[in-house]
Structures are given as C-alpha cells and as structure tokens.
Task: structure prediction
Amino acid sequence: MFSKISILTGYDKKGQAEAVEYLEINAGEIYSIVGFTGSGKTQLISDIEQMAQGDSVTGRRILIDGKAPEYTVRYNPESKLVAQLSQNMNFALEMPVRDFLIMHAESRGLEVSENLIEEIMKTANSLAGERIEDTDILTRLSGGQSRALMIADVAIISNSPIILVDEIENAGIDRRKAMDVLTRKGKIVLIVTHDPQLALIGSKRIVMSNGGIADIVALSDEEVIAERMINSITEMLFVAQNKIRSGQSIQLSELTFPEAL
Ligand SMILES: Nc1ncnc2c1ncn2[C@@H]1O[C@H](COP(=O)(O)OP(=O)(O)O)[C@@H](O)[C@H]1O
Ligand SMILES: [Mg+2]
Result:
C-alpha cells in the first residue's frame, strides 16, 4: 500500500524547534512513544492520525511515501489508513456483538462468513478475562471486554496499515497478546506506554519532552535480554493474579523464575 511515513517535526511547547528534525518510519516497524505526563505523546499520535500538515499546535507535517496525503485520504473516513486504540474507548451502540461485526465487515467490503465472525470472537476472547458471547449487547460489555473486542475488530476487519495505541496499560486485557494480534504483517505500529514490557516491543523509542521529540533511542542488545526477563516476571505475576482471581492458592512450584536470571 505504501512503504513509509515521514514526520517533519515542528515546535515544542516553548516554540523551540524539536530536537529531532525528521523521522522516517517504514512499514513493518514498531516504535514506542515514551515521556512524562504532559510531554506531548498523545499530541504526536493525534498529529499522525490527522495527517497534520502544519495545521496543528506543533506545526508538524506527516508525509506518506514522501508526499502529503491527498485531501481524499486525509478527510475520507472510509480510507482508514489509521486505526487508533485508546484507554477510554467504549462502544456506544445498543446492539448485539454479532450484528455489529457483520455491519462493520460489510461496510469494509469484506465477505461475511461464519468463519470470520468466529475468528474475531476467538481473538477477542483470547485477550479478555471474562468470556464475550456474540449475543452480548455492546453497551453492556466491561471495559476490558470492549477493548478486547475493539482490538480483534481493528486487527481483523479494519486492517489499517497504521496502528496507533495510546496507553492501554490498565485496560484489563492481556496487553502483550494484544500487541501480538495488532502487530502482524507489515504494519506501522506506534505504542504510547509507560510499561517496559510494551515499550521494549518497539525497535526504537521516540522520547517526548516539553511537547517536542527530544530523542530516538534504539533497542540495545542488553535490552533484548532485559525484555525476556521482564516478560518472565510479568508471566509470573499473571499466573499469581489468575490463581487469586479464581479463588485458588498460589503454589511455589507454579512460579518459574525468569529464564535469563
Ligand atoms: N508542541 C506542542 N506545542 C503546543 N502544545 C503542545 C505541544 N505538544 C503538546 N501540546 C499540548 O500539551 C498538552 C499535553 O500534551 P499531551 O500530548 O496530552 O501529553 P501526554 O499524552 O504526554 O500526557 C496537550 O494539551 C497538547 O495539545
Ligand atoms: Mg496522553
């Protein structure tokens, strides 16, 4: 579809030029966006989502394959170049999950089959704790269930080439698995996160400060090992959490130590 997006940077909150002048992200690359609260992470996501052309507070410009996107791409909601997931998203529709999925798939020109619906439900249920039935009414899903369904929907129906994820830390879903679902096949994925487990999925980290891109940090060899250790620890926490949730006792033999330790 396209091979890269470029960010021509603008100005930070003080009106100073951003420290990084130019950033190119290729199809298939995963970047995380890090920085303290108020440092401009959501603004960067929003500039990309809107395909800003110097018309946002930052003055950034976003290019696709070196060119400003056409008006139709920028303003046509059907072009769906970008899919965004954020913490506070919930479904506002009073309809069963199944009807929504059929409606959405048809609107995207997909052939709706029993297999397609099944695949989405299976994916959503692999992320959510409490099982989602296709007869459940959307507005009655929990926050975690809504997010799980949205992620499955974005991954399987929308299939947008650019995926932006803004702080899904406390979303009540298996975040690591969610990233696996979203980062399949040649997509550009940008993840805003404070969570080392998610931040280290990216090959590079965009460091935000004072509203500007302050630095780009590449994942180091040591961090590749650190990532494995952090994943094992998270896995251990997950096992313990599930034991407690389901009313059982934790057994020491079930807690395995990080492989790299
Ligand atoms: N370069 C900038 N120039 C002016 N305002 C900015 C800039 N970057 C961010 N802001 C504004 O600063 C506020 C905090 O930014 P935000 O992106 O929400 O931070 P974060 O998501 O890191 O907590 C927002 O109102 C945002 O629009
Ligand atoms: Mg934010």
User: Anything to note?
Assistant: The first strand starts at residue 4 and ends at 8.
